[in-house]
Design a protein that fits this description.
Shape: globular
Radius of gyration: 15 Å
Helix content: 25-40%
Structural class: alpha+beta
Number of helices: 3
Length: about 120
């Protein structure tokens, strides 16, 4: 039996205006939740993180239209259900009375590996 190829997924994250509206004393809670989300994606069964990009030093402010994104995670993922589980972390990780998605938006682009000829 041949093994089903993994999906190549680009998780795109955008910091939203709600984050920038927080009092400075509350920002650390969002960073802690963001770390929980990043570890949560990495630790999903069968996920292999291939690379990340954090654009926060040269892109300042929100990404209300989705582009440019603030950060990217490129991963090989076993199936669509795992991609959904990764995105669901934004819905379930709590920050006080809110969820992470109040502060960061995510979009997952699903494709396959682009093979470059020899």
């Amino acid at each position: 039996m041949s093994q089903k190829p993994k999906l190549r997924v680009l998780f795109c994250g955008a910091v939203l205006q709600n984050f920038f509206d927080l009092p400075s004393g509350e920002i650390g809670k969002v960073w802690a939740a963001t770390g929980e989300m990043l570890k949560g994606i990495r630790d999903l069964p069968g996920v292999e993180i291939l690379g990340t990009i954090d654009d926060d030093q040269t892109m300042v402010g929100t990404s209300p239209n989705g582009w440019p994104w603030t950060f990217y995670i490129l991963a090989d993922v076993p199936d669509r259900d795992t991609v959904v589980a990764a995105c669901n972390l934004f819905r379930t990780i709590e920050i006080g009375e809110h969820r992470l998605w109040r502060y960061i938006r995510v979009e997952a682009r699903i494709g396959r590996e682009l093979v470059i000829p020899e």
